[in-house]
Amino acid sequence: MFKDLDPILHSQLRLAVMSLLIGLKEAEFTFIKEKTHATAGNLSVQIAKLREAGYIEVDKQFKNNYPLTICKISQKGIEAFENYVNALQSYMKPSDQ
Amino acid sequence: MEDKSIDYQESLQLINSMISKAKNAYRDTGISAMLWGSVISICSFVKLAEVHFHFKLPFDIYLLTLLAIIPQVIISIKEKRLRKARSYESIFLDYIWLSFGISIFLLVHVINLAFVALQPVAAEYASLAGHPSSFKLSEFVMPLFLVLYGIPTFITGAACKFKPMLWGGILFWLCSVITVYTGYEADLLLTGLAAIAGWLIPGIILEKQHRLAKMKEGVLNV
């Protein structure tokens, strides 16, 4: 049996954000935007979806009077990402099933 | 990048590409390595000149290491502000270098105490034996420092896969072994040269790489 893929993660931009954050302690919104080449509006929407799912933690601060958004993957997010990768692997190796 | 569904192959490619982008998030500017490479080599060579040419500066040249903490703090704060992402690797290396700094100052303290404690013992030996002891604690000071210099340098080189620093760490340890058997002047010369090879030169290479990477990103801020 194939495992179901998490619909929250099975989207290009959300998966990119999660893949980036999995290797980092935390990252600023501008860093994620720079690495994913996404527009600020679209990225904000996708980050909000990941936050609502409990996959990331978003901390809004101020730095030199400018808003600063810091994103960090949560434990639930780590588990979801691991499950997603395992599910992907099971799809890639159907003969093992 | 958009909010669109992707196939399995694309998903795996995307994960790999993003993970490698996150890996490159930490890039050392090399400024701290350049600073400490310069300071330690200057201190060693000036001390060597003092010993070799029999003159004495009105102050201890090693006080320069205390002064260098001020620009180091400024550099660290500035680099932290510019850092847009914090990798586990960068946090780990920050703690390694912090523990190195603390260890150096503790070692200086312990060595100073050992010198004070040994003075009456040396005086008693001289009065009993009729000649001063051939044992000189100062001969073992440089090897101890070189052992410590090697630890964070080797770890940084290995963690960042940066060979000049990895070899620099090994060079510090090699010099540590050699300086046990050499005189004080040779110890100072080797320490100065090791600081240039282990910190200053890797620092210059890192700074150049950092500048090139910034230029590629199109955000060169000099």
SSE diagram, text form:
The complex is a heterodimer of chains A (97) and B (222).
Chain A: H1 12-22, E1 24-28, H2 29-36, H3 40-52, E2 56-63, E3 66-73, H4 75-92
Antiparallel strand pairs in A: 1-3, 2-3
Chain B: H1 8-23, H2 31-52, H3 63-67, H4 69-82, E1 85-87, H5 88-129, H6 141-159, H7 163-181, H8 184-217
Helix pairs in contact in B: 2-8, 5-6, 6-7, 6-8, 7-8
> Any idea what the CATH architecture of chain A is?
Orthogonal Bundle
Q: Compute the gyration radius of chain A: what is it?
A: 15 Å
| Integer-rounded radius of gyration of chain B | 23 Å
Computed structural class of chain A: alpha+beta
C-alpha geometry of chain A: elongated
Total number of helical segments of chain B? Answer: 8
Q: How many distinct domains of chain B?
A: 1
Explain this structure.
- The complex is a heterodimer of chains A (97) and B (222).
- Chain A has 97 residues and is α+β, with helices and mostly antiparallel strands.
- Chain A has one domain (12-87): Orthogonal Bundle (Arc Repressor Mutant, subunit A), CATH 1.10.10.
- Chain A has four helices and three strands; from the N terminus they run αβααββα.
- Chain A has helices at residues 12-22, 29-36, 40-52, 75-92, and strands spanning 24-28, 56-63, 66-73.
- Chain A has a three-stranded antiparallel sheet.
- In chain A, a hairpin with a 2-residue loop joins β2 and β3 (66-73).
- The mean pLDDT of chain A is 89.
- With 222 residues, chain B is mainly α.
- Chain B has one domain.
- Chain B has eight helices and one strand.
- Chain B has helices spanning 8-23, 31-52, 63-67, 69-82, 88-129, 141-159, 163-181, 184-217, and one strand spanning 85-87.
- Chain B starts with 7 loop residues before the first helix and ends in a 5-residue tail after the last helix.
- The A-B interface holds A 10-16, 19-28, 30-31, 34-38, 42, 45-46, 63, 85, 88, 91-92 and B 1-6, 8, 10-12, 14-15, 17-19, 21-23, 25, 81, 84-88, 91.
- β1 of chain A pairs antiparallel with β1 (85-87) of chain B, so a sheet runs across the interface.
